[in-house]
Amino acid sequence: MASIISINTSQAKGERKTPVGTALLRVGHGVVGDGHAGNWHRQVSLLARESIESMRAKGLDVGPGDFAENITTGGINLPSLPLGTHIRLGAALAEVTQIGKECHDRCEIFRQAGDCVMPREGIFARVLEGGSIHDGDTILVVGGSGQAAIQGLNNATSADHSAAINDAIGGSENSLTLADQTAEKNNASGRTEK
Question: What is the average per-residue pLDDT within 143-168?
Fold first, then answer.
């Protein structure tokens, strides 16, 4: 079963975060008291423990929060979740808004290992329903605009999995946001945002 392994906060963006055990997620804001929070599409960042373990296997001494993620998860393949997916995090509800991110400046982890998982495997979400979250809380995929794609992913074989993910997120570009996809759909249909 998917769960929250660690909740992590820091005072500023781009810093390693410290595990805190519990936090409050606020609608339109993110993690109360975290420097990453604000009224934007990347209110909460998530990274799987399995991704962190892959970096440990490369010899790095890293753990929850070291990639500046707010929530370290276990038992869920985060980058396979389509944009628009709703996930229940303890008492809160969030919507996946971005998969991966562009890394403008090579972080310390990249300099040490020649690789960093957050740009490829981290995801971002906005808070739809606020509430308290705690280490050990269950994570549930509960719907959203990505629901049909999730059902397809659940039925896909391992060989079909990568293709299904790419189809679900609108191609192979890992850093498209929900807003980017909406703009692309509007441009394709001749509509423009005002």
Answer: 48
